[in-house]
Design brief:
heterodimer, A: 475 residues, mainly alpha, two-stranded antiparallel ribbon, 15 helices, B: 339 residues, alpha/beta, five-stranded mixed beta sheet, three-stranded parallel beta sheet, Solute-binding_3/MltF_N (chain B), transport (chain B), Bact_solute-bind_prot3 (chain B), signal (chain B)
Chain lengths: 475, 339
C-alpha cells in the first residue's frame, strides 16, 4: 500500500520565474511594466531635452495673457482683450454646440434612414440605401467642403437683397438665406433679466448693462463683434468694457431701451418648460390612477397642453417678448440670429455622414430581433407602425446603443474638421490661433487632447448610464 | 584619472551639443538640397509656373541661398506652408529656412525662438474691396464682414484697428490666400485684408482687377523677411549675408549683366571686390568658398532685378519700390558693409 507523502519542500529558484506557471504570469507583468516605465521616462526626458535644445520652457502662463484676436461666433461674452483661456472656452462652447446639434440630427436621420431601408416599398428602401452608401463611402471632409461651397457660391450676397428685383426674404420678410449664412428672427425681451442695453451716446450705460449677462445673448454671437473702444477708454470716461456692446445697437435715441435677450431669460424659460412637462406627466399619472380605480380615464390632454403652455406664455408676456427680425443695415443683416455658413456646413455634413452610419446600426439592431416578434404582434392585430414603435425598436435599442456611443464620439471628434470651413471651435482657437500666436504647441496640444479625452469619457459615461437603463433586466 | 574621464566625457558632450546646434549647413551640404518653406501660392512671391517650377520674389531668395551654399540655384525643395503650419515646420527642422511673407515681430523673434535674418520687403496691412461697395476708406467699414488669413499678425492688427476706431466687424477666418480670394470673389466677405503686397498680388490674378480698389489706409508695419531657427548662428549668418549680398549688389551696381566682367579681376572698388570674392576671405569666414555671393547674385540678379522681374511695376502685380528702394534713393534698404 502506497502512501502519498508530501512533495519535498524545495527552495525558490530563479528559473521558476520563467518555467513555473505559478510565477510566470507575474514575471511577464513586471517585465512589461518596467518596459512601459522606461518608454515613458524616455519620452518625457526626450521632450525635456528637446525643449531645452530649442530654448523653450513648459508653462501654461500664456492662458492668462490677452488673446488679441476676435472670434466671430461667441456663446459667451468675449472680446479681443480677454485672455487666451477665455478664447479657448469660447472655442470649447462652439465645439459643444456643433457636437450637440450634430448628435441630435444624426440620431434622427439615422433612425429614419435605418427603418426606411428595411421598408417593403422598393423605392423607399433603395432611396435610403443610396443615402447610406453615398455618405458612408465618401470622406467627411469632402461633404463639409461641398456643403460650404454650395452655400457660399449659390446663395445671394446680403447686398443683393437691396432693391425690388433681387432675391427676397422668406416667411414674411423674416428669414434671409445668404452666402454668409442664414439669418432668422431672434426672440428678444423688453424686460430682460440680464438688463437691457440702453442705446445712448451721451449717457453712460448703467452698471446693469455691463454685467456679463447682457451679451450672453443666447444667440450665436451677437450678430457681430462690437470692438467698441470702450476697453481702452475705460480709464478715461469711466464706462466699462461691457458697454461696448451697445455698439451693435446704435439705433434709437438717448436712453431708449433696446430689447435684448440674456442667458438668464433663456434659463428661466427652460426652467418653466421643464416644470410644465413634469406637471403634465403628473397629470397623466393621476389619470392612470383614476383609470385603475374607477375604470374611467378622465380627459387629460387639454390639461397637459395647458400645463406646458400657460406658464410659458405668462413668462414670455412678463418678460415682454417680441421677435427681432433681421434687417439689412450697412453691409450685413442686423438683428436676429446669424447661423453662419461654417456652422451650417459643419453641422449638416457631420449629421448626414454620421447619420449614415447610425442608419446601418439601427438596421442591424432591427434585423437582430426575431421575425417571430413581428408576426406575434401582427397576430395580436397591431399595425406595422405600432409594432415598430412598441415591440421592435425597444428591443433593438439594446443592440443599437453600444455602437451608437462610438458614433457620437466619432461625430464629436470629427467636429475638429471645422478648420476646413473656418468654424471657430476649440481646435481653431486654442489649437490654432493661440498656439500660433504664443508658440506653445506642446502645452496647447496637451490641453486640447485633455479636452477631447474628458469630453469623450463624459459622453461615453452618460450614454452607458442610459444603456444600462434600457438593457435587458436580468434577475 | 577618474576626474579626467569625467572631464573628457563632458567635453565630448559639449562638443556634441555644439555640433547638434550648428548642423544645418552640414545637413544641407550632405543632402545636396536646400529645404525652403514658402507660402501655398501667392502670385509674384511664390507660386509654381506652367512648367511646375517655383517662381517669385521669395523663391528667388531661396534660389540665391541654394546657389551660395550648394552652387546650384535649382537644388531647392519647396515646402508649402500655411500661416498656421509655417513655424512648426521650421522649428521641427522640416525646412532649413522660411521665406514666406512672414512679419518680423518681437514675440516671434524672442519667444518663438526664431532668427529673422533681415527684411526683404517692407510692407503694411491694407484692405481690398469691390468698387461697387462704394467704400473710400477703411474707417467706413463699420459692420463689414472681413476675410482674414488665420494665425497671422494681420489677425491681431485687424482687431486693434477696429477697436481703436470704435467700429465693429465680422471676421471670417480662412486658411490660405487662395481660399480667401475665392470667398472674397463670391461675396462671402465684403473686404479682404492682408499685407498690401499680398493684396496687389491677389488682385493681379482677378478677372477684372480694375473692379477692386485697395483702400488707402495702411494699418500696420509689416517688415517681411526670411527666418531660420534660433541657435544655429553659422547658418543664420549665411542666410543673413546672402540677403545682404543681393541688396548690396544693387547698391554697388552689380547686375547679372556685368557680374561676370566684374568678378573676373579685381576692380577699383574694394567693396565690390570683397563681395565678389576677388579680394579678402569673406567666404571662408562663412564656411563657404569665396564665390558664394557671386553665385547668389547670378541666380536671379541683384535685389532690384529680382524685384522688377517678379513684383515690379512692369509685372501684373505692379508694386512700386516705395519703401523698398535703396537707402541712397530714399528707401529703407540698407545693407551693412562687406568688410
Amino acid at each position: 500500500m502506497a502512501t502519498i507523502s508530501d512533495p519535498p519542500e524545495q527552495g525558490f529558484r530563479l528559473s521558476q520565474l520563467i518555467f513555473d506557471t505559478r510565477y510566470r504570469s507575474m514575471t511577464i507583468q513586471v517585465v512589461a511594466m518596467v518596459l512601459i516605465g522606461l518608454l515613458l521616462s524616455w519620452l518625457i526626458s526626450n521632450t525635456i531635452h528637446n525643449l531645452e535644445a530649442l530654448g523653450k520652457d513648459f508653462d501654461f502662463g500664456f492662458l492668462s495673457q490677452p488673446a488679441g484676436y476676435d472670434i466671430n461666433q461667441q456663446l459667451i461674452e468675449y472680446n479681443n482683450q480677454m485672455t487666451h483661456g477665455r478664447a479657448a472656452l469660447v472655442g470649447i462652447l462652439n465645439t459643444l454646440l456643433v457636437a450637440v446639434l450634430g448628435c441630435a440630427l444624426a440620431t434622427v436621420l439615422g433612425v429614419i434612414a435605418g427603418v426606411l431601408r428595411l421598408s417593403n416599398n422598393w423605392i423607399v428602401s433603395r432611396l435610403a440605401a443610396v443615402y447610406v452608401e453615398g455618405f458612408r463611402n465618401v470622406p467627411l471632409l469632402l461633404w463639409i467642403v461641398l456643403i460650404f461651397a454650395l452655400m457660399t457660391e449659390s446663395m445671394p450676397a446680403p447686398r443683393d437683397f437691396k432693391g425690388g428685383d433681387g432675391p427676397s426674404m422668406l416667411l414674411g420678410e423674416s428669414v434671409a438665406i445668404t452666402n454668409r449664412g442664414v439669418y432668422i428672427p431672434n426672440v428678444v425681451f423688453s424686460r430682460s433679466l440680464g438688463g437691457n442695453e440702453v442705446a445712448a451716446a451721451e449717457a453712460p450705460a448703467p452698471a446693469a448693462a455691463a454685467t456679463p449677462g447682457t451679451n450672453m445673448a443666447g444667440t450665436y454671437g451677437a450678430s457681430r463683434i462690437a470692438t467698441g473702444g470702450a476697453g481702452i477708454q475705460a480709464g478715461q470716461n469711466g464706462t466699462t468694457a461691457g458697454a461696448g456692446g451697445s455698439g451693435t445697437s446704435a439705433a434709437g435715441e438717448g436712453g431708449e431701451v433696446i430689447p435684448s435677450s440674456s442667458g438668464w431669460d433663456w434659463l428661466l424659460i427652460l426652467a418653466v418648460l421643464v416644470a410644465g412637462s413634469v406637471g403634465a406627466k403628473l397629470l397623466g399619472k393621476r389619470a392612470a390612477h383614476i383609470q385603475e380605480a374607477t375604470g374611467k380615464r378622465p380627459m387629460t390632454l387639454p390639461l397637459q397642453i395647458a400645463a406646458i403652455l400657460v406658464p410659458l406664455i405668462v413668462v414670455l408676456v412678463a418678460l415682454g417678448a417680441s421677435l427681432d427680425k433681421p434687417e439689412l443695415g450697412g453691409f450685413n443683416f442686423d438683428g436676429g440670429v446669424h447661423l453662419r455658413n461654417s456652422l451650417i456646413a459643419l453641422w449638416l455634413a457631420l449629421s448626414l455622414y454620421t447619420g449614415a452610419f447610425i442608419a446601418e446600426i439601427v438596421r442591424g439592431g432591427i434585423l437582430a430581433i426575431s421575425k417571430g416578434q413581428t408576426e406575434a404582434a401582427y397576430a395580436l392585430g397591431l399595425r406595422p407602425g405600432t409594432t415598430m414603435n412598441l415591440v421592435i425598436l425597444p428591443q433593438a435599442l439594446r443592440v443599437i446603443i453600444p455602437p451608437l456611443i462610438s458614433q457620437f464620439l466619432n461625430l464629436t471628434k470629427n467636429s475638429s474638421l471645422a478648420i476646413a470651413v473656418g468654424y471657430m471651435d476649440v481646435r481653431s482657437t486654442l489649437g490654432g490661433i493661440t498656439i500660433n500666436q504664443t508658440g506653445r504647441e506642446l502645452e496647447g496640444m496637451l490641453l486640447l487632447g485633455l479636452f477631447y479625452l474628458v469630453l469623450s469619457l463624459l459622453i461615453s459615461g452618460v450614454m452607458n448610464v442610459y444603456n444600462s437603463s434600457v438593457k435587458l433586466k436580468e434577475r | 584619472m577618474k576626474k579626467t574621464v569625467t572631464l573628457g566625457a563632458l567635453t565630448v558632450a559639449a562638443l556634441a551639443a555644439g555640433a547638434a546646434g550648428a548642423a544645418t549647413l552640414d545637413d544641407v551640404k550632405a543632402r545636396g538640397e536646400l529645404k525652403c518653406g514658402v507660402s501655398t501660392g501667392l502670385a509674384g512671391f511664390s507660386a509654381p509656373d506652367a512648367n511646375n517650377v517655383w517662381q517669385g520674389f521669395d523663391v528667388a531668395y531661396c534660389r540665391a541661398l541654394a546657389a551660395a551654399v550648394l552652387g546650384d540655384p535649382m537644388k531647392v525643395a519647396f515646402t508649402q506652408t500655411t500661416g498656421q503650419t509655417r513655424f512648426t515646420a521650421l522649428a521641427s527642422g522640416e525646412i532649413d529656412v522660411l521665406a514666406r511673407n512672414t512679419t518680423w515681430t518681437f514675440s516671434r523673434d524672442v519667444d518663438l525662438k526664431f532668427e529673422f535674418i533681415g527684411v526683404n520687403y517692407y510692407d503694411g496691412q491694407g484692405f481690398i474691396a469691390p468698387k461697387s461697395l462704394g467704400v473710400a476708406s477703411a474707417k467706413e467699414l463699420d459692420g463689414a464682414t472681413v476675410c482674414i488669413q488665420t494665425g497671422t499678425t494681420t489677425e491681431l492688427n485687424l482687431a486693434d484697428f477696429f477697436r481703436a476706431n470704435n467700429i465693429s466687424y465680422e471676421p471670417v477666418p480662412i486658411e490660405t490666400n487662395a481660399e480667401a480670394q475665392q470667398q472674397y470673389l463670391a461675396g462671402a466677405c465684403d473686404v479682404y485684408t492682408t499685407d498690401a503686397s499680398g493684396l496687389a498680388a491677389t488682385r493681379a490674378t482677378f478677372e477684372n482687377p480694375s473692379d477692386h480698389v485697395i483702400l488707402p489706409e495702411i494699418i500696420s508695419k509689416e517688415p517681411l523677411g526670411p527666418l531660420v531657427r534660433h541657435g544655429d548662428n553659422e547658418w543664420g549668418d549665411i542666410a543673413r549675408w546672402t540677403l545682404n549680398a543681393l541688396i548690396a549688389a544693387e547698391e554697388y551696381g552689380v547686375t547679372s549683366a556685368n557680374i561676370a566682367e566684374l568678378s573676373s579681376a579685381p576692380t577699383n572698388n574694394p567693396e565690390i571686390n570683397r563681395l565678389l570674392g576677388t579680394e579678402g576671405e569673406l567666404g571662408a569666414m562663412l564656411g563657404l568658398d569665396n564665390e558664394w555671393a557671386k553665385r547668389a547674385i547670378m541666380a536671379g540678379g541683384n535685389y532690384g532685378e529680382i524685384f522688377e522681374k517678379n513684383i515690379g511695376e512692369a509685372t501684373p502685380i505692379g508694386l512700386s519700390r516705395g519703401l523698398n528702394a535703396q537707402w541712397t534713393e530714399g528707401g529703407l534698404l540698407y545693407s551693412p558693409p562687406f568688410r
